[in-house]
Amino acid sequence: MIEVENLDIGFDNVVLLEHLAFRVEHGQVFVILGGSGCGKSTLLKNMMGLLQPIAGKILIQGTPLKIQEGDPPPFGVLFQSGALFGSMTLAQNVSLPLEKWTGLDDDIIDTIVRSKLRLVGLEGFENYIPAELSGGMKKRAGIARALALEPPLLFLDEPSAGLDPITAVELDELILTLNRNLGTTMVIVTHELESILKIATTCIVLDRDARGIIAEGDPRVLRVESQDPRVVNFFNRQAAGA
Q1: Which of 41, 114, 180, 207 lies deepest, with the highest CB count within 10 Å?
Q2: Quick check: pTM over 0.90?
Q3: All structural domains of the chain with their residue ranges
């Protein structure tokens, strides 16, 4: 689904991460990990085309990533805050991509919107505005909008951020259900250890000092088998030198 080749990323030619190379296979839940300030969100923004890499390539389904004005992106996105339009109902929020990038009739759009909200457990909330929803419901609505065009790929930025433990677990279950039932490939940035160990098919671990990837693989295996103290500390919630 995604190939990253010899990628250097940063700002104003100041390299934050360099020589990144990894693959995201179809149907995976691929998680980007690392400590604060290591470049997780910057990498995600490069993978979505919101930032341009300093060097290297990002291929999505074999094609260089290039977002053209007026064309729908080849993926959906759940932003950390949900990024819903506060003056619009949930139905209006979810219908936006359909109205912008399809020529479907209103009644067909309405049917699709209702089905996407049902998919994320928000059936009956079509006419609610974001201010009337809990944090978890906003995240679910954001996922419904991200899935409106049925993309094969979904990016999620800190989906569990700001949620209580029970709501976070429920969101993890939703992510796994969507991945299983729809086959959607998911790339997720998170630092929530319980979520990582529950939902990830595979992961990469970034390190700020190394300016790159220090581990890659199944996080459940890395947690118990890695010989790198930085990786061990991350998965066991230990300070360096502990």
Answers
A1: 207
A2: yes
A3: 1-75+152-242, 85-150
Residue recorded with tokens 């004005």: 69
153-157 and 76-78 as β-strands: parallel, antiparallel, unpaired? Answer: parallel
Residue 76's beta-bridge partner residues?
154
Under 8 Å CB-to-CB from 1, ≥6 apart: which residues? 24, 25, 26, 28, 60, 61, 152, 153, 185
pLDDT in tens, 191-220: 888 889 999 999 999 999 999 999 999 999
* Whole-angstrom distance, CA of residue 76 vs CA of residue 144: 10
User: What pLDDT digit, counting tens, does each position of 148-195 carry?
Assistant: 999 999 999 999 888 899 999 999 999 999 999 999 999 999 888 888
Closest CA to 213 of 201, 228, 191, 195: 228
CATH assignment, 1-75+152-242: 3.40.50.300
